[in-house]
């Protein structure tokens, strides 16, 4: 048993004999209350501790060490007749993280388990959840008595609801008892002033406030975010990029699309900056997350680029049978897909930042706003990434149509197709996928290891064979079509 110092023993004896001064009222500001540990709910647990000073000191030390304040019960919090002989009652405030349902039972069992684990002479008698008391006050707004100008009215259209246009925005809010008349609100506003300027009845007025009102700005920002994601989807699917063959009209549309997308990206980038400035979690995570993520990105993005190659080659039934080119080509393809996904995330986060910036005064929680914005951005990013894969499939279909007409398709992120004429070295050379035609050119994307995959435009099927079983001669071009030279 831990040794108790004489001064502490004397104070405990005074408390047991009833000669000690009354304990201070518990205001939640003690050492245990300010230890920095977060909690969701508080439960007051009535316990009995053995009257022995050593046991009492040890129990209070153990309970307080867990961050649970311990005090003597107040009148009405316990029944003196029900206290076990030789024990003294104490109130333990258990602070919990988690669900509200079952909090009292959880606190009771936590104290019982702690007493059993540390061999405390302690009995648990009661546990009750501390509930929030209703606030009997109502909010009033203090606003200047002036007519807003056109600029302020336009701004209010995006940041306010259906209040009177002739009434400016409030500069101060006060809380007074419910059912109080306007005169009480004026008196409360005039009685003190937390900040300059002081209240002046000739220049300021009061009106009831609507707390947690929904500003109409959110639907405009949400609509703009959906419009931006839709524009990005259309650009990915239908616009031709600089390395692709395009008409003059397509080039003009690309320039206009890039300008519009740049403007919208700047708008939502500013919203993401607002979210970053207001969220302490993002500010603390990003400085160390980015250096950790960048090496992983450079290693993972080329692997992501293989998805584009797979989607493109699926039109030829050659997925996984072709070497996808060099690391740089795979990096470019992966960046296309990754940037599309991150762009959707940026739009969702930016929309959440704008909604919070324009509705923060109305009680909108930043955490909920960013939570919705991040998940909406993830959904938009997944949608745009899927659109990129669909475009890769469309490019593969276009390449297949060109190959069916014996025209060589253009390069695609390191995939370069060419027509070859195959001269088998043996009539019984093994060919996977069907019979090997020798009188017409076949399309290939190059060898992979000791094997080569081919595609027959006439039969529209994929073939495969070993490099050592045949001789491959580049096909000739005649009138824009590939042909095999005639053999003597």
From TrEMBL:
Keyword Transmembrane in annotation: yes
Chain intervals for the UniProt region annotation (Disordered): 15-35
Top-rank lineage group of the source organism: Bacteria
Record keywords: Membrane, Transmembrane, Transmembrane helix
Record keyword Transmembrane helix present: yes
Sequence intervals crossing the membrane: 217-240, 252-276, 288-313, 333-356, 363-385
Name of the protein: Uncharacterized protein
Origin species: Streptomyces formicae
Lineage per the UniProt record: Bacteria, Bacillati, Actinomycetota, Actinomycetes, Kitasatosporales
């Amino acid at each position: 048993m831990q040794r108790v110092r004489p001064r502490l023993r004397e104070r405990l004896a005074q408390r047991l004999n009833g000669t000690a001064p009354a304990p201070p009222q518990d205001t939640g500001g003690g050492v245990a209350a300010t230890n920095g540990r977060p909690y969701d709910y508080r439960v007051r647990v009535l316990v009995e501790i053995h009257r022995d000073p050593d046991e009492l000191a040890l129990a209070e030390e153990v309970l307080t060490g867990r961050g649970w304040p311990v005090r003597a019960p107040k009148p009405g919090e316990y029944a003196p007749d029900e206290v076990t002989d030789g024990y003294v009652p104490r109130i333990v405030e258990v602070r919990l993280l988690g669900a509200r349902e079952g909090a009292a039972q959880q606190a009771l069992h936590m104290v019982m388990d702690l007493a059993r684990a540390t061999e405390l002479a302690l009995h648990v008698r009661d546990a009750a959840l501390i509930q929030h008391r209703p606030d009997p006050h109502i909010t009033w707004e203090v606003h200047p008595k002036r007519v807003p100008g056109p600029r302020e009215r336009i701004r209010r259209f995006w940041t306010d609801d259906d209040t009177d246009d002739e009434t400016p925005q409030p500069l101060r809010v006060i809380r007074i008892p419910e059912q109080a008349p306007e005169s009480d609100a004026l008196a409360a506003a005039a009685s003190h002033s937390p900040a300059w300027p002081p209240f002046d009845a000739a220049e300021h007025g009061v009106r009831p406030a609507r707390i947690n009102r929904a500003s109409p700005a959110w639907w405009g920002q949400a609509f703009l975010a959906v419009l931006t994601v839709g524009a990005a989807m259309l650009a990915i699917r239908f616009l031709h990029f600089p390395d692709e063959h395009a008409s003059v009209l397509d080039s003009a549309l690309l320039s206009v699309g890039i300008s519009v997308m740049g403007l919208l990206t700047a708008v939502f980038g500013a919203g993401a900056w607002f979210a970053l400035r207001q969220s302490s979690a993002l500010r603390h995570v990003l400085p160390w997350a980015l250096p950790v993520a960048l090496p992983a990105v450079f290693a993972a993005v080329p692997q992501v680029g293989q998805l584009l190659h797979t989607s493109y080659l699926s039109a030829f039934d050659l997925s996984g049978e072709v070497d996808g080119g060099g690391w740089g080509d795979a990096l470019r393809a992966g960046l296309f897909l990754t940037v599309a996904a991150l762009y959707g995330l940026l739009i969702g986060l930016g929309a959440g930042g704008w909604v919070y910036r324009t509705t923060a005064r109305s009680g909108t929680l930043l955490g909920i706003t960013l939570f919705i914005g991040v998940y909406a951005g993830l959904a938009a990013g997944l949608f745009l990434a899927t659109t990129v894969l669909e475009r890769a499939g469309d490019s593969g279909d276009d390449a297949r149509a060109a190959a069916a007409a014996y025209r060589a398709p253009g390069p695609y992120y390191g995939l370069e197709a060419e027509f070859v004429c195959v001269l088998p070295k043996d009539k019984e050379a093994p060919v996977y996928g069907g019979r090997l035609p020798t009188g017409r050119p076949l399309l290939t994307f190059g060898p992979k290891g000791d094997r080569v995959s081919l595609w027959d435009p006439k039969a529209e099927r994929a073939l495969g064979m070993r490099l050592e079983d045949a001789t491959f001669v580049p096909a000739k071009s005649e009138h824009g079509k590939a042909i095999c030279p005639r053999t003597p």
